[in-house]
Design goal:
Blueprint: H1 5-9, H2 14-31, H3 33-37, H4 42-60, E1 67-68, H5 69-78, H6 84-96, E2 100-105, E3 108-116, H7 118-139, H8 143-149, H9 153-165, H10 169-172, H11 176-182, H12 187-196, E4 207-209, H13 215-222, H14 226-238, E5 242-244, E6 253-256, H15 257-282
Antiparallel strand pairs: 1-3, 2-3, 4-6, 5-6
Helix pairs in contact: 2-7, 2-12, 4-5, 4-9, 5-6, 9-15, 11-12
Amino acid sequence: MPLSPDQITSHDSVLPLLRVQARALLVAYEKSPRLSANFASQQRWLLGLLAGALHLRSELDTNSGGVPMSRFIDQAQVHGIASRNTADAFIKELINYGFIRQTTEAGDKRLRLWKATELPVELMAGWVVLHLSTLDQFDGGDRVATYSVRADSLARLQPEIVDRLLTLDAVRKPSGTFSLFTWLDKGGVVMDRMMSGVSDVSKGAARIPTSVLSVSDMADWLKLSRTHLTRKLREAEALGSIGWDGKRFHSAMWLSAEFLNEMIAAQAAKLGVIDAAYEQVFGS
């Protein structure tokens, strides 16, 4: 049986395991910052997941010459991710950066098709394997080994994961302080940085220290507007979700236990979806 979110959040090693996962996600971001930045807000992440699923499904179809532009735009609307104009602009941006390439259907030059290039497919594969590895650490499973046996594992599993993520409110519509950052440009990376630097939590602790020491340094590293990031952090501070041991923005940041639990719950919901999709595709 797949692990449930409750089983994940109640695991004795949930924080150390999610901390390792967050650090791995930051390493992936640093390897491909431009590509990763394209998927680092909630809306862009969902659009990127959808684009990946459509591409991989088309790769399994031997008669497909690629994904029609109109299909991506229609699906973005159907799932309530973005307007037609936003979805169209997103796919054109990926073309401009060379993350996807346009093709044409033989015999019909009017049909606009696209395929993903090598780098985003590698990023998708790494994302899937990382999360399967985290799940294996929770229960001593062999998901990564099973996944690695077949060459078409990514094309079979990633779309199944996306189908489930796009219908899960816990992922689509987060609440609390977590939701403040999901729509921030690179907000997901900001929270990965927070999670990667949290200390082990003492029982009953209200504040959890992190290794984040300078908001300016974090903004520079992310190539993110300091003003925009500072404004978002002030909103979180007003909720009592973050603070500083000394001078605001220039000393060690702490997270409230409630905010940390929100981040853990969000990761558990995502991991639960991934494990359920894995179970569906590969069985027990």
